[in-house]
Amino acid sequence: MKNRKLEYSNHINHLLSCRKCPKMEGNPVHGCVPSARIISLGQAPGVHEERFGKPFAYTAGKTLFGWFKKIGIEEETFRTKVNMSAVCRCFPGKAKSGDRKPDSDEVSNCSEFLEFEVRYHKPELIIPIGKLAIDQLFEMGKYKLEDVVGQRFTREFHGVNVDWIPLPHPSGLNVWNHTEIGKKLIEQALNKLKKHPVIREEFSL
């Protein structure tokens, strides 16, 4: 147990000291917890997250945790029980509309941290949030959000058999969330999350 704690502490130190990607702005942000049966997978932190020292700490986070509250999960409890990972751990900078999408090299550079967390925790459930996160798990090529949101999938990921239930990105710029199909499928996804055995056990639902 002591060696495992040290291994995870070393992982966090390695993550926080990473400076591989010159176009990334600021320092890495993490939502790591030492023991987790669930991993959430965001895209990348926003401009405010480094200041708060945690993922989904600003407006998109309010929307995300508003969704979880609908199924009886409070933000504070979620953050203690779920390892909050991301495809990239640094703020990518701004684009003309919203944040810049990390490029393939940046995704590749950061993938070692996600792989470690999956192999270490051996999660029973992954919750990818947003298309860049869903891209890491979806194996069937091109897709639309309505093809995946509201469904439950299973696959082997970094050597671990895991269920995954995707959510769209909760950004205010994501107009899909406010369409009739978007609202319907977000509700379906939340219901599937609420019924998942590991969610029921971890959050006493």
Automatic annotation (TrEMBL):
GO molecular function, one term: metal ion binding
Biological-process GO terms, alphabetical: DNA repair
Alphabetized UniProt keyword annotations: 4Fe-4S, DNA damage, DNA repair, Hydrolase, Iron, Iron-sulfur, Metal-binding
Family annotation (SMART domains): UDG, UreE_C
Metal-binding in keyword set: yes
Domain Uracil-DNA glycosylase-like: 28-190
Keyword Transferase: no
InterPro entries referenced in this protein's UniProt entry, alphabetically: UDG_Type-4/5, Uracil-DNA_glycosylase-like, Uracil-DNA_glycosylase-like_sf
Pfam families: UDG
Protein name as annotated: Uracil-DNA glycosylase
Provenance organism: Leptospira yasudae
